[in-house]
Amino acid sequence: MVKVAPSLLAANFMDLKNEVKRIEEGGASWIHYDVMDGHFVPNISFGYSILKDISKCTNMYLDVHLMISDPKKYYPEFVKAGANLIVFHIEAVESIAQAKELLLEIKQQGVDVGISIKPQTPVSTIETLLEIVDVVLVMSVEPGFGGQVFHHEALDKIAELANLREKHCYHYLIEVDGGINEETGKLCIEKKVDVLVAGSYIFQSDDYQTKIEALCI
Ligand code: DX5
Ligand code: ZN
After folding, report:
1. Residues 182 and 215 sit within 8 Å (Cβ to Cβ)
2. Distance 6 CA to ligand 1 centre (A)
3. Which end of the chain is more exposed for a tag (fewer CB within 10 A), N or C?
4. Ligand 2 centroid to residue 145 C-alpha, Å
5. What is the pLDDT of residue 217?
6. Exactly one of 34, 37, 112, 194 is catalytic; which is it?
7. What is the CATH number of domain 3-216?
């Protein structure tokens, strides 16, 4: 069954502890934690100290999406803060060789690793990394902001990743991020997505459980 990863970016930060509790009680097994540095993307969100506090009050799997220009420099702090998964962008590193080296380095810290591609980046760019990643994060909006409209081009990428996985017996999960709601989520599930990230769709409602369940159908 598909997993739902509520994106904390859309939560009420004044009530973060209860927001985390509400999504966990609502059936989410992952939290999606969007880190933005104002450089890789034109927005700034939150850093590792908040993650450290969150990790103390939940058993959910902490999925850290680094939208930052220097993932190599900062990922260790997120690992220390309790991240279970570190995802960085292929567009943030200079070469595929550098991405591979960094993925292997992160993996050695005992956490899962993922690579993310922006809407303009084709799957072929990351093809040689697919055998070592645990997650491929397909961006279905330009990274930087919640509440944007889903780009349908992401569907072909999900299908391509599912085919490659089957063909080569790879083990990664396919995760999609941006503009997910009941309809777009369903289209992604049809293409064999494994994890749906959803921010505004969940947090702008007053019943998180109903929204999380609706995404799983
Ligand atoms: C966008 C972030 C997303 C965002 C999704 O850069 O990576 O995780 O929070 O928000 P919604 O679901 O509102 O599009
Ligand atoms: Zn994200």
Report:
1. yes
2. 9
3. N
4. 9
5. 78
6. 34
7. 3.20.20.70
